[in-house]
Prior knowledge:
By secondary structure, the protein is mainly α. It has 4 helices and no strands. It is rod-shaped. The mean pLDDT is 81.
Amino acid sequence: MLLELLEFAFATLLILSAITQIIVPAFRSTPLFPFFRREKHLASQLERVNEEVLEEALRQKIARRQEKAARMRRQSGGHSEAAGTVPPSEKAKIVPPTYPEEKEKRS
Length: 107
């Protein structure tokens, strides 16, 4: 009885393996035995990690820009050109910032 049950279980696993690892990939024109191929999983994992690195770099860049803006506001004494509170003599001193990325794009 136990031997027949083991035979049935083994046959079922063999059939399922053949279906999922050989027949389905053959119809989809994908490589056979996908169970043993980890490249796709690793490639998607690498892509996800690269996105996380890029996001963190952008967060740091945003934080640096916000700090620079706050520093500039403190130095200017809270005057704002957009609000019209910057005296005309100070407007001549305001120079738009140039960023390294813009220089690279122009070159």
